[in-house]
Design goal:
Pfam families: HTH_3
InterPro entries: Cro/C1-type_HTH, Lambda_DNA-bd_dom_sf
CATH class: Mainly Alpha
Number of strands: 0
Protein name: HTH-type transcriptional regulator ImmR
Structural class: mainly alpha
Order of helices and strands: HHHHH
Distance between the termini: 15 Å
Oligomer: single chain
Radius of gyration: 11 Å
CATH architecture: Orthogonal Bundle
GO molecular function, one term: DNA binding
Keywords: DNA-binding
């Protein structure tokens, strides 16, 4: 999986919209949509916010490690 796929997976697992996650991050909905579609990559500060929000490591978020169920 890549970052965009991971972000989409995590968001859907929590039953949230792209707009809700974008608001949490303080970015435009369009910007967040671009993260999920891999058109744009989040900067390191945004990645840290996402990892903290989802309570996962950066390695899992960026696809270096797999999710465990």
């Amino acid at each position: 999986m890549n970052i965009g796929e991971n972000l989409k997976y995590l968001r859907i697992q929590r039953n949230m919209t792209q707009k809700e996650i974008a608001k949490i991050l303080g970015v435009a909905t369009n910007t967040y949509t671009q993260y999920e579609t891999n058109y744009r990559q989040p900067d390191i500060g945004t990645l840290v916010k996402l990892a903290d929000y989802y309570m996962i490591s950066l390695d899992i978020l960026v696809g270096r490690m797999k999710f465990t169920a």
